[in-house]
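so my prof wants the structure for this chain in the tokens format not the other one, which i didnt know existed until like an hour ago. anyway here's the sequence
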Amino acid sequence: MITTQRLTLREFTLEDAEFIYQLMNSPLYIKFIGDRNIKNRDDAKTFLSTKLIPSYQLHGYGLYAVIRNEDKALVGMCGLVNRDGLEHTDIGFGFLPQYMGMGYGYESARAVMNYANETLSLSPIWAITNLQNTASINLLTKLGLLYQQQILWGDEQEPTLLMSTHEFSSVEISSDK
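here's what i got, hopefully its the right format
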């Protein structure tokens, strides 16, 4: 677990299926991150058991449930991802709409970045985001990530912004997600 003044980050469990269903069907998540085809709680459990939870064993990290300490509300997710086609570990985050704009994104992402650097010795950390997602871009910039280039990644038709904690000249991206 990772703790901050207001938040606790923990590994996801199958009991978090309702949260995953709500988050991944929120309009901003679909617009900026994508439709993960989570149409019911069973789809959410499958996503947890095949995508999120295995990462902890495979890589020693993953996306974490972000819990507000004051009332134990599950407000979002934040963590580290090894994405197919990306050379380095990526920081990712998403929050339920009612918890956006409260600083939870920065607080949890800063804690994840510290964990990645100090505990896991991961460097550089990359991030990818939709070019229109100014809130995400601003948060990544505040964390110290630098604009690198626009890439076509996965099956996306539109370019994606690639940011990194370290500058580099250019990168080859695999077309597989």
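also thought this was worth mentioning. The chain has a mean pLDDT of 92.
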